[in-house]
Each structure stands twice: as C-alpha cells, then as structure tokens.
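Methods, example record. To illustrate the input and output format used throughout this study, we show the complete record for Aldo/keto reductase. The sequence lines were provided to the predictor; the line carrying structure tokens was produced by it.
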Amino acid sequence: MGNKSNPAEPGSDLSRREFVISAVGITAGIMMAPSILVATPGTKEIHKFGEKMSMKTRKLGNMEVSELGAGCMNLSANYNVAVPKEQGINTIRKAFENGVTFFDTAEVYGPYINEELVGEALQPFRDKVKIATKFGFAIDGTIALNSRPEHIRKVVEESLKRLRTDRIDLYYQHRIDPNVPIEEVAGAIKDLIEQGKILHLGLSEASATSIRRAHVVQPVTAVQSEYSLWTRNVELNGVLATCKELGIGFVPWSPVGQGFLTGKIDTNTQFDAKADFRSGFPRFSKEYLPLNMPIIEWIKGFAAKKGATPSQISLAWLLAKGPNIVPIPGTRSEQHLLENLGAHRLELTAADVQEIETTITKFPIFGDRMGKEFMSQIDYTI
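The corresponding predicted structure is encoded as:
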C-alpha cells in the first residue's frame, strides 16, 4: 500500500528532514454570529460566542505563556491565499481578548508579511504578550538554509522592525543548517540575548542530538516540532524525552494535523495545487486520504461522547501529555479560533488518554506528513 506508518511506531518520517516556507495562507473561514455555539450537534456547550475566556499559563523553560498559543502562519502562508489584513488583525486580537498571550510567526511566512501583520496586531498590548519568530532560510527564491552568524545578526534586525518591537521573546532556528555547527548558531543567539534583542533561544524540528549540543552553549527554552494524534514521531525519536529531561518547553505545530483532525476534511476535499501545499503531501493524496479516514471517524465519535469537537479532543490530548507542552493551533476564522481555545476547558482523564492512545494505535497512517522537498530538511538524523 505504499508508504505506511503507524503514529505510535517509527515511520519513514524519522529518517528525513523538512522545512516550511511559503507565500500563501489557509482556507478561508466564515465569521459566525454571536449566537452560534462551538460544539457538535446534540452535545453540551463548550463555548458560546461573546463569552470571554480566561486561560491558565504554562512554562516554556522559564518563560510563562498561555497554555494554548496562536500559530499565525495560516493568516499569510501555506494553505491557500492570505486573508485580508483587517481580518488577520482581528483574528489575532480576538485570540488575545480570549486569553492567548503567546503568538508564533516567522520571517519566511509570506515571506515577511506575517511578521508585519503580527507586529501591527500586537502593538497596542506588546508588553502583555510573548512573540516567537524564526530565522534560518535564505529566502532567495530557493529552499536554501542560512544560519551563519552574520546572517542571523542581519535578519534579527529586520524581524524586530517588522514586529514593531525592541526584543523578540523567543527566537527559533527554523531548521537545522547542516553547514553551520549548531554551537555557532547558539553562540550567535547568546550574543543577541546579551544585547537584549533576543530573550530566549528556540529550535524547530531539531533532533535530540542537536538540542543537547545547542543547550550546552545557550539554554534552549523551547523546541517546536509537528506533533498531533496522527504525527507522533517526537514520542519515539528522543525529542520529547530530551525536552522533559532538560526542562525545555515543547510547542507542537499543526496540533490538529494540518486540518485533518478538525473533521472537516473528507475524500471530496479539493486542495488547490497552486496555493495549498497539502495538495502535494502524501497523506492528503487521493491514494492515501481514504485510507486515513478511519482515525478521524473514531475521533469524531469520541468527541461527541465528550460534548466536544475533534479539534478540541486533539488539543486537549496534547495538553494532557505534559505540563511543558503548549500547542499553537492556527486559524483565520473567529469560529474556529474560539472552538480551538475552548479545548482548555476540556480536561481528559487518565482513562480518556489511555482510551484515545490505545484506540488510535490500531489505525495505520498512510503516507508521509509532507512531501519529499519539505521532509528533506528535517533534522532527524539520529
């Protein structure tokens, strides 16, 4: 059946490497009226529009953030055309109004326009939030990496300007650059921390080995990798264990499986070949998507029993996996934003987590999580 991997077993993902770069955004959402409830039909209410949320906090290293963050990439990049600027600003500010204090972006999203959007949206309450952004791509029309110290010193100034701030709370190396020793990268960030331009070092899609090497030079505050109910590689390659051992926070990106775990994607879903990267991702292909549907059908049924949505179950499961885990779901729809944030009210018991994991391990996952070009820059060479 081609490329087949179980989310609870090592798959071909672990031996490859990936990168994320783009100039387009996620599918448009519809702004819903205040009377609409975020819950599955026939179930109890998880959240009602107009009702502000309060959210607990968690620690990424020694940096305190809301237990759910906001991934802002989808507003400007990756899964379809960018949203209108006003809609993007409103979505970011709506997240803040509902307790989110941790916002994630990158210079490569757009490129550049997502940082500009985040900077403008957060400027009125900059001191009340934490901003994470990323460096490491050449952004020269290729997929080349560039983490040379001189390049880092240049692009940090550009990111600071776009973000309208004098410091970046968390600065991730977006992908490990095989041409630059990680110690040199960590050293460059250490210098910027001493200058006050950066407050914390992060790594994205890094192996346990790279995390340890960087941590010796400059303590790593957070590691960001894809992690969800259908992408569980970090449980097996030592990344999660290393973060726990060293007191490093872990930030799952695509915590709802690039939209798959929302339950809103089915075999009739069409992905724009020009604007949506998922059109080239094996898991979403016409060959493999039908084979992957059983897992989401089961999650839908479990969610209905809990009076929740599949997205909320997926996020609540991640929150239950460890106190150092802070998912960053991304959306551009107010409806979906509040649905996602409602997950913080859904407390899964140990029995719930066991049932979820025991069941989903019975469903094989078909196809790599991204295409070969993207997987080629994942630092899982361990």
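Annotations derived from this record:
DSSP finds eleven helices and 13 strands in the chain.
The two ends are 27 Å apart (CA to CA).
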